[in-house]
Request: fold
Amino acid sequence: MTNTDIDRLHGLMGLMTGDEKHSPAATSTLDALWVLYDRVLRVSPETVGRADRDRFLLSKGHGPMAYYAVLAAKGFFPEELLTGFGSYDSPLGHHPDRTLVPGAEIGSGSLGHGLPLAVGSALGLRARGITEARVWVLIGDAELDEGSNHEAIAYAGPAGLERLHTLVIDNGSATHGWPGGIASRFEAAGWSAETVDGRDHEALYAAFTAPHPGRPRAVVARVEPKNA
Reply:
């Protein structure tokens, strides 16, 4: 990301106003989202309907401003829609709605749902014989307090879902920790996992594109604590 990219994305986020912005939840994801959409994901406004596209699922849906800014910057919808964020007649709600937001794969905001949905998406692609498409899901560290995520983690490793990728944004929000850190939880279940600086774009890109044959991949992106 260049300084121009940074300024533009922050400018787009600044168009979204209101009392329910969940700004820390949004800004914690901005760098990782941009690296994914700018350099990794095989999906665009022109290919969003193709069966072999990459899927990105935003489980951390209670802070969608950075997600909306990135989608607008990539042309999924006009930037002018950002100014209506959260208003009654805007498609850009405080939680994304897949039926209203171009490019959104799921409706989200209820914590703990995204990773299980991503596991199901990866299984569905496997069953259909679609081998090129990858599934990415972004979750927050606090979501790992939800038991549904641990069931998904425990299943995906032994199932060998190598097209599944989980990005965990760690801003110190979790109530419960894990001995050895978040990445060790995934590794114990047979995942390939790595922890990186969530503001370092080259480190994020390297972690996102590292080979992991036969195993799902988890990248834990550490950012500044939520209350810092």
Q: What stands out?
A: The mean pLDDT is 91. The first helix runs from residue 3 to 14. Strands lie at 55-58, 135-140, 164-170, 192-197, 217-222. The helical segments are 3-14, 23-27, 30-40, 65-73, 114-128, 147-159, 182-188, 201-209.
